[in-house]
Design brief:
It is built from eight helices and 13 strands. A hairpin with a 2-residue loop joins strand 4 and strand 5. The strands form two sheets. The protein has a five-stranded mixed beta barrel with strand order 1-2-3-5-4. The longest helix is centred in the C-terminal third of the chain and has 17 residues. The termini are far apart. Bound molecules: guanosine-5'-triphosphate, magnesium ion and zinc ion.
Length: about 300
């Protein structure tokens, strides 16, 4: 007997949490050693009885956001409409990590926005405001919220952006991702605890990626904070194209293989000198390019 595809709500190591087409949820494993299943996947599956299921096959994905180092690729989530990078000034977010995420998402054609939280903390926003404005200038929507001080206002602003879409929340640990999920999805905390105890994980900081259905439709996916975000799976060209202000200038340097570092008559460096391109973004780009060239 064949059953309709299920939606992968959570992935933890080799264990998964599924929702079937009737809304019933299942703890699942994959058949054999194949474990290439990720939150947001649609899968063919079979019940094994007593709430246990087995995943037979992953359906083709629209996109797959991932990070990687030399040894391993980590898939974060699949079939996304957008990624929301959660940042705050307390603790100050890393612009390098932000850029890495933006580049990885660009490569997959996933739209990105920034959610800046903790507007209620003194100086939290002031500290990062100039940088946030830069990202707005680059065309990334930036949503400023205070989840703790103004939960209702925060919920209504975010509902506009999130309803009906599948959105991955990601960012460094402690930025406030889970706080936003708990605000927007009634019962999310309890749901998390249920899955955590079924999968035997910890409970405080987020330890695995999980999707929650939004009350008005769409999916909100919480993920564990990260401290590194490797781009070993990307080419130098993909990195260049991930800085959107670079794109119109690519191909305008004197040398077709210009690295935009020290080369003469470089369109990108000229734009940095005139202030048209932000010098900090350029410096981060050089760092990422050095890193990519060292391993390619
Ligand atoms: N003052 C203030 N504190 C906040 C706000 N949002 C979150 N916090 C606090 O920041 C801390 C971290 O919040 P979480 O939502 O757990 O952060 P996270 O991004 O999910 O962290 P990880 O799961 O470790 O990746 C908690 O102590 C929250 O109470 C906010 O808007 N204002
Ligand atoms: Mg969390
Ligand atoms: Zn150049």
């Amino acid at each position: 007997m064949s059953v309709a595809d299920a939606h992968v709500l959570a992935a933890y190591g080799r264990q998964f949490w599924l929702r079937d087409s009737t809304g019933q949820e299942w703890s699942a494993v994959t058949r054999g050693r194949h474990a290439d299943v990720v939150t947001g996947d649609q899968v063919a599956w079979q019940p094994l009885g007593s709430g246990q299921a087995v995943i037979e096959q992953v359906r083709p994905r629209r996109n797959l956001l991932r990070r990687s180092d030399l040894h391993r690729t980590k898939a974060l989530a699949a079939n996304l409409d957008q990624a929301a990078i959660v940042v705050s000034g307390e603790p100050p977010f890393s612009e390098e990590l932000l850029l890495r995420v933006l580049i990885a998402a660009e490569r997959e054609g996933i739209a990105c926005m920034l959610i800046a939280t903790k507007a209620d903390l003194p100086q939290s926003m002031e500290r990062i405001d100039a940088r946030l404005k830069l990202y707005e200038t680059l065309g990334y929507p930036v949503i400023r919220v205070a989840a703790k001080a103004d939960p209702q206002g925060t919920a209504s602003i975010l509902q506009n952006q999130l309803t009906g879409r599948s959105t991955l929340l990601l960012g460094q640990s402690g930025m406030g991702k889970s706080t936003l999920v708990n605000l927007l999805v009634p019962g999310a905390e309890l749901r998390t605890q249920a899955i955590s105890s079924a999968l035997q994980t910890g409970r405080h900081t987020t330890t695995f990626t999980r999707a929650f259905e939004l009350p008005a439709g769409g999916w909100l996916i919480d993920s564990p904070g990260f401290q590194v975000f490797g781009l070993a799976h990307l080419s130098v060209s993909e990195i260049e194209h991930g800085l959107r202000e670079f794109v119109p200038l690519l191909g305008h340097c004197r040398y077709h293989n210009c690295g935009h570092r020290h080369e003469p008559h470089c369109a990108i460096r000229s734009a940095v000198q005139t202030g048209q391109i932000d010098s900090r973004r350029h410096a981060l780009y050089v760092q990422l390019r050095d890193e990519a060239e060292a391993i390619q």
